[in-house]
Structures are given as C-alpha cells and as structure tokens.
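Review form for a predicted model. The reviewer records the input and the model, then writes brief findings.
Reviewer: anonymous (R2)
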Amino acid sequence: MLKYRFVSHTADVRFFSYGSTLEELLANSMLAMFDTQANVSRIGKAVKNGLVKSKELKIHVIATSERDMIWYALQSALSELDSIYAYGYAVNDVRITKRSKGIIAKASISYVDQSQEYSRIYVKGVSGYELSVAKRNGKYVASVVVDI
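Model under review:
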C-alpha cells in the first residue's frame, strides 16, 4: 500500500497520506512531513550503519475529531523536533484511543540531530487549510498542507 504521495501546491507542500487504520494513517502522515524536511531514507541508512545516533521522542495529543487529531499530532511532532533541532525519520508504537473526552493519540518518533547533509526544506507549520481525513473504500486518506 502506498504510504503517501506529494502533489503540486501553489506555495507550500501538499501531500496525501494513506492507512488501513488511523494509526497507520497518522504514522504515514508524519513520515510524509518528515520526508519534506529531510531525506528520511538516507537518515535511516545512516542510523542502520551506525553513522549517526537515533533518539526517541514521545508525543501525546487529545482532539475532538480525526482531522484535528492528525493536525495536532503533526504540529506537536514538528514543534517538539524543531525545539531540539532534530529531524524525525521513523514513527513507532502509534496508539489511538477514542474516549468520551475525545480522541487520544500517542506515538514514538525516532529522530536524529539536524545535519545539513540530510536537510531538504524548512517546514514552518501544519496548515488547517485543506486538511481533511476521509475513509474511502475501507482505507483512510488524509490531505495535508505544510507551510514552508
């Protein structure tokens, strides 16, 4: 299954992410955002070959809708990684729970310290504009625009 794909956008970066479950959709949405900022494949290879050390960051958000859950989780990951000058490159242990108080999303993000050799483009934020989550043919699809 396709994880994500980038589509043309007038001024920013837009992608569609996909998943069989909300957990997979959130992980793939994060990966697409990380891949906008840095070469995640190259980072993964460098970590595997012991050239760079990987660290873990946990995020936790609560939202009232699936759309807002994706938005808050992406923005939380972006803000947390930016504050420690890091690039995310993998998403692990995603857990989404629906409760009466809302949707709770938790994830563990593998990251490395920022390095020019992995850098692509600076992502400033996750836009609420054109952000959507839908279920089509039994699969989830998210449309996301990130501000660059």
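Findings: Strands lie at 4-7, 13-19, 55-63, 86-99, 102-113, 125-136, 139-147.
Further findings: The two ends are 28 Å apart (CA to CA).
Recommendation: see findings above.
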